[in-house]
Amino acid sequence: MIIRTANKLDFPTLRKIYLESRRESFYWADIDKMSLEDFDKDTVGEHIIIAEDQHRILGFASLDLSHNFIHNLFVHPAAFGKGVGGHLMNASIKKMDKPLRLKCVSKNHKALNFYENNGWKKIIEEGELESRYWVMEYS
Question: Which of helix, strand or coil describes residue 75?
């Protein structure tokens, strides 16, 4: 598996991964309100790395390098459970200074378990009742 910086030619595939992954995993969200354009809005100004295997993009992470913050980490549903998320997380950790932070939706138990199993600690739960999230830290 190769981890590399994304370029504009990767964006059509990244848009699809972002949409399909959220539709598959975000059971609490209204999937009809999700669109391909969400990727562009939700990654403005961020450094994007991708996981690629045999010239197929399997997932991505978007990073706010100035704040040591992982904003998005998404894997295509067909690649769930194959180590893609771990490779992206490790590459993100190497790219930024510690401590790193991220936010994870409180209802996203699978992602919370993934992060906790990989050394992230819950710091504080924030947000309104229907949109709670955990601020998590890796040091």
Answer: strand
Per-residue pLDDT tens digits for 89-115: 999 999 999 999 999 999 999 999 999
Band (pLDDT 50/70/90 cuts) for residue 25 is confident
Residue 77 structure tokens: 């549903």
Domains: count for the chain: 1
Helix (H) or strand (E) holding 112: helix 109-117
pTM of the model: 0.92
E strands in 23-115: 47-53, 56-64, 69-75, 100-105
Distance (Å, whole) CA 63 – CA 43? 8
Q: Which residues pair with 134 in a beta bridge?
A: 104, 125
**Res 24 pLDDT > 90:** no
Q: Domain with 90 in it: what CATH number?
A: 3.40.630.30
Helix then strand count (H, E) for the chain reads 4, 7
> Six-digit token pair at 4?
């590399």
